[in-house]
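Figure S4 source data
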Amino acid sequence: MDEQRDPVARSADGSTDLYEVSTWEQRSRFDRFSTRVYAAIVRTTHTVVVLLALLILVAQFALGGLAAITDPWIGAFVLLSVVPAFGIAAYIWYADVTSSEPLSLLVGTFLLGILFAGFAAVLNSLAQPLFQSVPLVGMVLFFYVVVAPVEETVKMLAVRLYPFRRPQFDAVVDGAVYGAVAGLGFATIENAIYISQEFLASSTTPQPFVAAGRTAVFRLFAGPGHVIYSAFAGYYLGLAKFNEENAGPIVVKGLLIAALIHATYNSLVGVVPAVVTGLFPSIPATAAFVGFVLVYDGIFGYLLYRKIARYRSAYEEFAAAPTADAAPAAGLDDSAVGLEADSGAESDDFVVGRDADSETESDDSALGLDADSGTGSDDADTDDDSRSRFDD
């Protein structure tokens, strides 16, 4: 855009070499060396972030927070507890009308979602005592100021550091897919911590597996929220990739939407079921909890569905099928009618793996999202068990 260019570069007719006057490109060996140094700094920063997250995960195992996960029954409980969340993430992947994402990127995003959850656990644990000392509204503020923003940001960090920079991330809706997968990873490790801790806490009782199984049932209803929230934020991250001039505000908008939905859930999940059972004593507390979660997640799941459906409709109208005007006249080559050779190609739906050349790779600085900027959010649990590093 002209208004973002230096006045000299904007006014020049293009015949004058303005290298290192008002423009820059790689020319000298020193230029290329500087470019390599910058790339090395970026790679090193990403590596340090991942290693730090890995150390936090190892520490959680060492301190006992995940010790029981090695038990086959506990592992089975964890897997069962994320089935609904997996189903929602799978649907979002299926609803991607563009060519589907490579399995390697999906798995990598899932693993980063698991790893980066440790950042949220640490920050939540450090901040929670400060808010608990505030009467009445302390925990509500904690959900809105710390838990939700922190957890939603770390989930987006998983997307930002890996699939976002790959050429296969070549459509806005891809952000929703990778955001959902990051949310699934986050929900998986969070459920593992809750279930493992409940099992260890009940190990002196006659039926520790029953207690762990009960926790797994409640966690069935917590995971879908993570997928929905981060799919919203991921969609806006995808929108930012293809609107670089407004990338920062777009990313912030997505994170704010996800965090507000998340924090509101956390604030209401312990209150609304209690009010319902108070007004209608015949309704069991568990039924009131399940009903609230289904209604709340259903509302925002539907809004997410509408957003993705709107993209699908626009894609089918403008990008998928060639129009009648696009067909070249007989005897004329493509250039004669101004038609790009591949402009009418229809994207192959639901095939794992994209053409690596389909989109140029976005520069790390284009988004304007600092790798340290973030933290994300979490969902609520009916038990205010402070033993977990997460605060639902």
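Figure S5 source data
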Amino acid sequence: MGAYEEYFEIYQEFKDSGTIRTDLPPRKDEKYFNPKMETGDWHEKMELGFKRLKRIVSWAYRYSEFYRREYDKVGVKPDDLKSFDDLQKFPWFRKGAYRKDMIERNPPFGTIPVPELLPLVRNLCRSTGTTGIQVPQFFGPLEWDVFTDMLARWIWMGGFRPGGLFQDFFPMGRGYSWGTGVWTAVQKIGGTVIPECGIIWTVDSWTSTEFISRIAKPYLEKGLPIHGCTSPSLTLKIGMYYAEKGLEPPFTGFTCLGQPISKGVRDLIKKHFKHVDFVQNAGGTTEGVVYGECKENQLHAQHHFDDCEFVEIVDPRTGEWVGPGERGEVVWTLYYHLINPYVRFSIEDVAPNEWEITCECGRTTTRHPYMYVGRTKDLFRVGDKVFLPYDLEEAITDIPEVIPSQYQVIMEDDQKIFKGIVESDKKITDELKKKINEIIEKKLGVPVQIEIVEPGKIPYMGYKLIQVSDRRTKKLEERLAEVLVPKKLWKEVVREGYLEYLMKKS
């Protein structure tokens, strides 16, 4: 059997197992989009996941020149994988390794994709390019069906239901590859999507904002949901826009992604959007969904998709799992990406090695009790303290003279002063500068030098606010040695038995 025939055999297995829901649309009164995979026995799902893990590792070795070369280089074979724990023996990769392969080995796509399957590609997506040359991703029928089902589970978590109206505010064509995926997911649910997205990054350019207000009445009268989708910072901007125009936002929910969000910004969003269900998601523009947040537990319920992926928290210097409660880099393996395999691929986010498998919402999926708050490369030290850009967001959210979520952190080698930029819609005076700097310095606990600028001065790239100006010259490995210390930076709250389960031999 060749890769082509095996691809469709695996596609059918995803359908037969229930990972891909086929009886669509669901009923409005169903609590979960995919009850079997969201609430089924956790151990059974992990057993299914391990079978799929073994299969994708074998697949990558047999059909991808890149993985075969890298595995042979360190002397590992697919048969060496006897447990989840054994995955640590295999190489792991950041996006930079994929970029290098694309450029040097076999332009334009590199040696990762399975050549025989390229004719199956239906959606050719890409990364935003914020960290380097854009990386392509290939979605065939299997990849697209699983990806959009994962999105549908997340959108359902946020309270969206059949018959509702869904507006995607992300701009297509600027590195946002999820647009058509989100639309497909909404249609699988049985909702109506407004397929347009934003034009440019100023809220008053989004004529769809006023359009949706005009057509909302019949939906609201019938008790049907009206949801929006964008980044947290732009959700807040939309809320502020409605307030400035004196309009009542018609939205009953927002599903957000693209940036970490502080509790302060979340509270401000809820202030502008009363009676709104708000959930956050993490994922990669090219790779897919990492977790979805349920509305019942929000900040403490980052639900993973155990039947579709395996997530590790590793020491970014070694690729080995960090200890319980320790902070590390998020690495994950996708069971369903066959055309362009992702095995031990780092999304470069920072997270604690803490897990739960129960939740108030009733889901039995593995979840993080904390959301991801930044990337490994964005860890930086000021004096004897380690920060992420997110820390500045938390510091400014309750300063009335500062526009929440609009900020940029400046990183330099051997910093003694925390430097950054924030926006204010007030008259910028020496007194205002002094006041804002003093408040932020008190909250961060280090000397600060914060520049105050007018609204709109901090630029966006695609749908992402450029929150970092990285002026460091030291290599990543040298910087990590400065910011990663061998002690627990998060309290130890680990679901008893979870890590032990992963280390069991099959």
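The first strand starts at residue 123 and ends at 126. Residues 42-63 form the longest helix (22 residues).
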